[in-house]
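User: tokens in, sequence out, please.
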């Protein structure tokens, strides 16, 4: 009687009729184990991991706030200096190499290096007219003074120019000699250009160092369907049969330019 009462109380309490350690075989080999099967803390989600999960949002908030504060302080100091520098130096270049290249290009521009043939001719004609007008006026003044004073020394005194009469115009230097016009010209478009031009190559590339077009991954070398020539004398590298489906035979779409 008492034994039956004890078993009934245990069942009412939710306990097992025959408690035992471990799990039955049908629950033993599963992809996961229930939390109630672990004795002590969880092997994966232990107390330290749970503590880190609890502290993670707070740590992230502290770090993000610190970063934003430092960034704002840095920008508040950098932006006024940047505005001041750019206001008084609109063409400044922060890279020293770019500054040197800009200075070199500006010097070449003053020398007429970037001018075309027509621009160079106009500059020379303008400079010639200016000098001709100056010398004519100088001769008239010298002749007038020498006629009044009847002195040859006064006429020769005008040969030596004054400081304010020294011409300040820049004549482009002679870099190349053009046999067609029989004059010296220094311009950028007179530099020899072209892969088939002998004057544009100091040393030819040996054949064993040249890439194989059939094995090259580079689009410029792997041009099996033709050649587009130089930039100046460029041509369509696709035949009439491939032009309608050009995008199927190229890595990069290069339309015909001429």
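Assistant: Sequence out:
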């Amino acid at each position: 009687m008492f034994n039956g009462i004890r078993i009934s109380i245990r069942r009412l309490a939710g306990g097992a009729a025959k408690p035992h350690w471990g799990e039955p075989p049908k629950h033993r080999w599963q992809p996961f184990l229930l939390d109630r099967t672990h004795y002590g803390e969880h092997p994966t989600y232990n107390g330290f991991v749970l503590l880190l999960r609890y502290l993670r949002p707070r740590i992230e908030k502290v770090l993000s706030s610190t970063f934003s504060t430092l960034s704002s302080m840095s920008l508040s100091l950098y932006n006024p200096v940047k505005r001041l520098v750019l206001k008084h130096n609109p063409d400044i270049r922060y890279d020293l190499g770019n500054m040197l290249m800009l200075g070199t290009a500006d010097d070449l521009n003053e020398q007429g290096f970037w001018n075309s043939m027509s621009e160079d001719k106009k500059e020379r004609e303008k400079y010639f007219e200016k000098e001709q007008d100056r010398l004519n006026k100088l001769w008239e003044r010298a002749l007038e003074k020498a006629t009044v004073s009847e002195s040859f020394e006064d006429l020769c005194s005008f040969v030596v120019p004054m400081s304010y009469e020294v011409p300040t115009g820049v004549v482009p230097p002679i870099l190349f000699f053009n046999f067609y016009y029989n004059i010296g010209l220094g311009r950028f478009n007179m530099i020899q250009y072209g892969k088939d031009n002998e004057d544009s190559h100091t040393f030819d590339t040996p054949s064993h160092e040249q890439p194989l077009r059939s094995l090259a991954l580079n689009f410029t070398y792997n041009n099996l369907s033709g050649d587009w020539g130089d930039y100046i004398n460029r041509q369509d590298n696709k035949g009439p049969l491939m032009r309608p489906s050009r995008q199927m035979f190229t890595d990069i779409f290069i339309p015909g330019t001429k």
